[in-house]
């Protein structure tokens, strides 16, 4: 019944862990789920009220515009200017998306012909590789290794592959490793893309979830980036709005237009009321994100101490709400053990690609007291093992 495209999809990487989670719950275990990357914090009330008001506007009951309301796109361009100092033309360099995942998944259809190569990081958000394959492209894996700060080694890409590849996906601050890229790396990437005529699709939804002194940069801050790159962004993590599906892609006009062309043949834009509420979210994002960072910072500190105690090699993330821990063994076996022994769910690193093997991802998107409870369980286990 199914197409080769669907049949060739790898088995859902987290199915086994889902089954183990359900089984533990059935047995009455109080499971603490640190597996999902979905903020537990609620969307701020002011955004919800903006949605309720906008839902009453009959203009919003009709088909929205494909590219997004100009008011929404203008708010995005103002946000980029204020956040990163990047100037964008809201008419031609900003496109609304139904969550950034939608644009990421559709993007390659605009640029890849069957058999074209596309550079894809590993470990990574799985959609990059699937999107390339759905478009008939051939993913070329860029390993992200700890010794390189989880950045790809651009010098290791052969000139033949670099010249043949049409596009490159990257994501910093990075899911799942929590690593950041600086402007020096982005400059090198832009030069590499310019020399090889590559399209850069940079995914930046975690730019506001950072713990260091400065905000992680946008690739568009680099000179020349606008010639080769676009950046995906979203209100999902910035304003706790994953359910709202409010994202955008910005940057190079031709690339933005290409994605827009695909979209106008597939969807009819996102609900106007969500865009109106999105404008409020963008304008209030400073204070919303500042509060969110403080909450995650406390949780990261807490969980980090627990993970160290149970013997995992882990560093505090520079950004994102993930801790990426080295287990020294097989990631699926380790996550299985965590559920069985402690009732704690984490994501096996191998679910993000072969180079994630041996790692486990923990997400701090659970209430702080639940994370404290998880740490207590870890401490109890260590104390019991010592007393044996
Ligand atoms: C790296 C990365 N990109 C994109 C997304 C999708 O975000 P959105 O909710 O904007 O579709 C996620 C969500 O977890 C993510 O981790």
From TrEMBL:
Matching CDD domains: AAT_like
Signal sequence interval, chain numbering: none
Alphabetized PROSITE patterns for the sequence: AA_TRANSFER_CLASS_1
Transmembrane regions: none
EC numbers for this chain: 2.6.1.-
Keywords, in A-Z order: Aminotransferase, Transferase
Residue ranges occupied by any Aminotransferase class I/classII large domain in the UniProt entry: 30-377
One Gene Ontology term of the molecular function aspect: L,L-diaminopimelate aminotransferase activity
Cofactor(s) needed for function: pyridoxal 5'-phosphate
Organism superkingdom: Archaea
Record family assignment: Belongs to the class-I pyridoxal-phosphate-dependent aminotransferase family.
Full protein name: Aminotransferase
Source organism per UniProt: Candidatus Methanocrinis natronophilus
